[in-house]
């Protein structure tokens, strides 16, 4: 059941991306870009929260790091986007690897609070270190990449469709990497840690090392999301990287989509970012529906939307069993 | 029954069981929590292929003993060796690289992993020691007769099956020394027999087994030798039958007065 859904998932994902590109509508393209951004953050969060079971509520810090780093590289040093795409995820991973061992001494709520504080520190820095971050005014004029490729195969990165192709390519690559990672021994060990840290250690795995690695992957992917955000919007300010705007939102997207699942980040993002936009609801109505969806999913599908197929097939099996007995 | 098949393939070498070198040995191991001495100067060893019972009344320090041996807790003083390697300063994960593995008193039931995934996780162990036999998760499920439970989330399985799964997982780690913390606790009588067979099978492959257990009868049947702990100190070492008759042991278990009545 899950395998079959996986196959359908890839078709829908690629079909959807191609469809939106062909539609060539500025609004829909922007919404699709936003959905991919949220899915990217949720994919990152999935490593530390979905697999390893650690409530990382400071994702916004790394998202912000990526965005501000990209802005600085682009506007101050006139570096092309590709430099930020390589440098900032590495910076996110290094920062995580430095603070990870400290934060990961704590767990459960303590870890959540510690990472929450990390996010707040970054928010404070972006607001107040005016000479570097521009303070509340932010940084504008971030240049998108120019023409990439030759002739018929060239993409104009300055245009929205060009940007859409760049982000889509990175997103699909990230999804493939996430799909491979999900089957890997590394993720199995992370899930062992989520299930029972002590037992996993007794099998000989230095669990702290694995947790820091998961934390660093989350940091790197979030920073990648930040770089893309900076180049899509071309202007950054502290607001989108605050707790409620970034860290909490990423958590909700992943929790609604399904912790520890491959398609959860995509489903959560489509439902929570995409649908309210496409349905063109008024902002108050949007919030109400948003809350209702959150509540219903937590109650009906505690393992998220991605588990719907499993839940339905199990229900059907029990129904069949009851029917025959 | 599947275990019997395996046993028949097994070439048990009695020489191995009486090899001079001890698989695990500890000297003057002490651990206290605040003012409470959980372990006092415990010195002992287990030979390869031997099954040692670790007995003692409640609060005698049996679980602390296993926790200190496995590296989960660090001893205040004393040394632990696995064969010739001094592992005293090593963490639990590090000791596993030298072939020291353990199970836990409470079945580590998990809502995250299926039985098969647990075994796959265990088979990835970074244990460096060479063992005569290496199994795949599938082979072990077959041997333990757990195949039909493999795809089920661990916490959905009956308690006894969970314990079997945990033991199968440790088996995949290719242990040289295996410490079992109350493997029979909460397990049905029929499954105790099965678990005992599995433990004997480990020993027949040359694994040194240390067994903490409340179920004295199972210990008597399984163990070549027992030690008895009381208030963190070792008060007896020898054959199981002798332990039951030992007046010091009786006093520790029953208190002075009842022990006196038993003998008098």
UniProtKB/TrEMBL annotation, chain A:
Cellular location(s): Cell membrane
Keyword entries, A-Z: Cell membrane, Membrane, Transmembrane, Transmembrane helix
InterPro entries: ABC_transp_permease (IPR001851), LivM-like (IPR043428)
GO CC list: plasma membrane
UniProt keyword Transmembrane, yes or no: yes
One family name in Pfam for this protein: BPD_transp_2
Mitochondrion in keyword set: no
GO function terms (MF aspect): branched-chain amino acid transmembrane transporter activity
Protein's membrane topology: Multi-pass membrane protein
Major location (coarse): membrane
Residue ranges of the TM segments: 6-24, 31-49, 55-74, 81-103, 109-130, 160-181, 208-229, 241-267, 287-312
Name of the protein in question: Branched-chain amino acid ABC transporter permease
The organism of origin for this protein: Nitratireductor aestuarii
TrEMBL record, chain B:
InterPro entries, per the entry: AAA+_ATPase, ABC_AA/LPS_Transport, ABC_transporter-like_ATP-bd, P-loop_NTPase
Start and end residues of each ABC transporter domain: 24-256
The UniProt record lists the keyword Nucleotide-binding: yes
Keyword terms of this UniProt record: ATP-binding, Nucleotide-binding, Transport
Pfam family for this entry, one: ABC_tran
GO cellular component, one term: plasma membrane
Classification via SUPFAM superfamilies: P-loop containing nucleoside triphosphate hydrolases
TM spans (from-to): none
MF-aspect GO terms: ATP binding; ATP hydrolysis activity
Lineage top rank: taxon: Bacteria
Stated name of the protein: ABC transporter ATP-binding protein
């Amino acid at each position: 059941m899950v395998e079959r859904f996986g196959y359908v998932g890839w078709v829908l994902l690629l079909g959807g991306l191609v469809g939106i590109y062909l539609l060539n509508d500025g609004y829909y393209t922007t919404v699709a870009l936003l959905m991919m951004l949220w899915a990217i953050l949720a994919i990152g969060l999935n490593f530390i929260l979905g697999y390893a079971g650690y409530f990382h509520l400071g994702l916004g810090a790394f998202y912000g790091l990526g965005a501000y780093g990209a802005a600085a590289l682009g506007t101050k040093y006139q570096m092309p986007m590709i430099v930020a795409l390589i440098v900032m995820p590495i910076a996110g991973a290094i920062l995580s690897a430095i603070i990870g061992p400290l934060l990961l001494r704590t767990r459960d709520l303590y870890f959540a609070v510690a990472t929450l504080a990390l996010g707040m520190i970054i928010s404070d820095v972006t607001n107040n270190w005016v000479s570097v971050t521009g303070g509340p005014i932010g940084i504008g004029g971030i240049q998108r990449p120019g023409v990439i490729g030759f002739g018929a195969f060239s993409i104009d990165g300055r245009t929205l469709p060009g940007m859409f192709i760049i982000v889509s390519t990175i997103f699909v690559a990230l999804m493939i990497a996430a799909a491979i990672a999900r089957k890997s021994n590394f993720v199995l060990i992370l899930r062992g840690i989520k299930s029972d840290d002590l037992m996993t250690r007794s099998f000989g795995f230095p669990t702290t090392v694995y947790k820091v690695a998961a934390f660093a992957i989350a940091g790197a992917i979030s920073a990648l999301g930040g770089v893309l955000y900076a180049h899509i919007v071309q202007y950054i300010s502290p607001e989108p990287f605050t707790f409620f705007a970034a860290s909490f939102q990423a958590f909700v997207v992943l929790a609604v989509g399904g912790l520890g699942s491959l398609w959860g980040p995509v489903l959560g993002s489509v439902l929570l970012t995409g649908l309210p936009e496409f349905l063109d609801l008024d902002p108050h109505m949007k919030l109400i529906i948003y809350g209702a969806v959150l509540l219903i999913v937590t109650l009906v599908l505690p393992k998220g939307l991605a588990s719907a197929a499993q839940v339905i097939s199990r229900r059907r099996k029990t129904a069949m069993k009851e029917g025959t007995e | 029954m599947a275990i019997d098949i395996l046993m028949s393939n097994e070439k048990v070498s009695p020489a191995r069981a009486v090899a001079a070198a001890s698989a695990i040995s500890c000297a003057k191991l002490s651990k206290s929590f605040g003012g409470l001495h959980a372990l006092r100067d415990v010195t002992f060893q287990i030979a390869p292929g031997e099954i040692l019972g670790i007995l003692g009344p409640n609060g005698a320090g049996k679980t602390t003993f296993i926790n200190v041996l496995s590296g989960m807790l660090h001893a205040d003083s004393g040394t632990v060796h696995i064969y010739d390697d001094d592992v005293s300063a090593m963490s639990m994960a590090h000791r596993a690289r030298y072939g020291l593995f353990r199970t836990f008193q409470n079945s580590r039931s998990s809502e995250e992993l299926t039985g098969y995934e647990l075994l796959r996780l265990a088979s990835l162990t970074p244990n460096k020691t060479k063992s005569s036999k290496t199994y795949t998760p599938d082979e072990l499920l077959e041997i333990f007769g757990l195949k039909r439970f493999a795809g089920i989330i661990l916490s959905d399985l009956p308690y006894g099956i969970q314990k079997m799964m945990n033991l199968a997982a440790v088996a995949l780690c290719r242990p040289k020394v295996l410490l079992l913390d109350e493997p029979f606790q909460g397990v049905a009588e029929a499954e105790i027999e099965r678990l005992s067979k599995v433990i004997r099978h480990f020993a027949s492959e040359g694994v040194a087994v240390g067994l903490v257990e409340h179920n004295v009868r199972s210990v008597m049947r399984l163990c070549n030798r027992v030690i008895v702990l009381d208030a963190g100190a070792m008060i007896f070492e020898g054959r199981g039958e002798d332990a039951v008759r030992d007046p010091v042991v009786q006093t520790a278990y029953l208190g002075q007065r009842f022990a006196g009545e038993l003998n008098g």
